[in-house]
């Protein structure tokens, strides 16, 4: 690692001022589980490291707040989200998904904001957050904006965040009544590995008709992605085995997986079809039970 200055601001305003002052020379440090590795490999070499630890005392950055929408502070740890009674009751998909991340040790450190800003396409939270129509709230010294998560990821480890912007929260809007959800993380190697393919799904039913389907994948391309052709093939249809199978097959055209030690691109494409079908089936089963 090269030398850097470590600064720990006491307030959000101070953190934002530092980001404005140092721009691309600065990086914020949340849980440190992603950034420290990149720094050790010299892939990222900030001159200023802005530690967010002191800000974890601020409720808007560290709390899960229910209202019509559910707001999750950017500094909430994965473990906090996984074990939150409120999340388990209102958004069980999120509790399940965060439980699938690495080990308890990593989940205790890694944060909601870091899981998005890091933008490693192999991470688990993004597909689940995409099917829940999440929005990302970001702030700079100049103001605040909200970004649809589906517009947030640009490329491998790249997002639309400006250098002076901090993620402050993730907002999850009210879900369609009776919606069923599912998350599959296919990891044939060790239990705490990144996914070979991950798929999240959400569907709701009006009688026998599928409404508001959402399908998203991780570890399937340079960014987490919404499988929009699969969603379009499900919208307004009756969830018969044939409809689900044919819709899931369309995911092969949406994904563009990287070959690595977890499998060839071809293998991952095949697994994307298999797990998309399973994810839709499970979400439909749950939506039917919720009916
Ligand atoms: C061994 C290991 C295994 C892992 N396995 C998995 C896995 O299977 N699935 C999975 O999903 N994740 C996994 N992770 C975690 C994941 O890869 C990231 O490390 C983690 O999500 C980053 O969160 P963090 O809070 O530690 O972010 P940090 O490491 O602190 O930061 C990561 C990046 O995000 C930026 N950042 C952080 N917070 C903010 C913010 N509020 N606003 C703007 N930018 C911000 C930082 O500047 C940095 O660029 C694993 C990590 C390790 C070390």
Termini distance? Answer: 55 Å
Helix/strand order, N-terminal first: EHEHEHEEHHHHHHEEEEEEEEEHHHH
Taken from the alpha-carbon principal axes, the silhouette is: globular
Could you tell me the number of beta strands? 14
Percent of sequence in beta strands:
15-25%
CATH architecture of the largest domain: 2-Layer Sandwich
CATH topology of the largest domain: Uridine Diphospho-n-acetylenolpyruvylglucosamine Reductase, domain 3
* Count of DSSP-assigned helices: 13
Largest β sheet strand count, sense and barrel closure: 5 strands, antiparallel
Poorly predicted segments: none
- Unique bound compounds: flavin-adenine dinucleotide
Average pLDDT figure: 96
Explain briefly what this protein structure is.
The chain has 291 residues and is of the alpha+beta class. It has 13 helices and 14 strands.
Topology readout:
Blueprint: E1 5-7, H1 12-22, E2 26-29, H2 35-40, E3 48-51, H3 59-62, E4 64-66, E5 70-73, H4 78-83, H5 85-90, H6 92-99, H7 104-109, H8 112-117, H9 125-131, E6 135-140, E7 143-148, E8 153-155, E9 158-159, E10 166-172, E11 180-186, E12 197-206, E13 209-218, E14 225-226, H10 228-234, H11 241-249, H12 251-254, H13 265-290
Parallel strand pairs: 1-3, 2-3
Antiparallel strand pairs: 4-5, 5-10, 6-7, 6-10, 8-9, 11-12, 12-13, 13-14
Helix pairs in contact: 10-11, 11-13
């Amino acid at each position: 690692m090269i030398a850097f200055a470590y600064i720990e601001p006491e307030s959000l305003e101070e953190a934002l001022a530092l980001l404005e002052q140092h721009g691309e020379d600065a990086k914020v440090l949340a849980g440190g589980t992603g950034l420290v590795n990149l720094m050790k490999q010299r892939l990222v070499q900030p001159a200023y490291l802005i530690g967010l630890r002191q800000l974890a005392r601020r409720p808007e950055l560290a709390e899960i707040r229910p209202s019509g929408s559910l707001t999750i502070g950017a500094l909430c740890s994965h473990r906090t989200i996984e074990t939150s009674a409120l999340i388990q009751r209102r958004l069980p998909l999120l509790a399940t998904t965060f439980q699938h991340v690495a080990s308890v040790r990593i989940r205790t450190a890694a944060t909601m904001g870091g899981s998005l800003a890091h933008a490693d396409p192999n991470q688990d939270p993004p597909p689940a957050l995409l099917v829940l129509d999440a929005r990302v709230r970001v702030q700079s010294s100049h103001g605040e904006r909200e970004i649809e998560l589906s517009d947030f990821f640009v490329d491998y480890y790249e997002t639309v965040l400006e250098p002076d912007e901090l993620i402050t929260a993730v907002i999850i809007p009210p879900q369609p009544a009776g919606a069923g959800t599912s998350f599959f993380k296919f990891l044939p190697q060790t239990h705490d590995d990144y996914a070979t393919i991950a798929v999240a799904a959400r569907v709701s039913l009006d009688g026998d008709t599928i409404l508001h389907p959402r399908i998203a994948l991780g570890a399937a391309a340079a960014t987490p992605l919404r499988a929009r052709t699969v969603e379009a093939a499900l919208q307004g249809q009756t969830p018969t085995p044939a409809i689900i199978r044919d819709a899931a097959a369309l995911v092969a055209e949406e994904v563009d997986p990287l070959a690595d030690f977890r499998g060839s691109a071809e293998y991952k494409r095949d697994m994307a079809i298999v797990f998309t079908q399973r994810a839709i089936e499970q979400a439909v089963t749950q939506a039917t039970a919720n009916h």
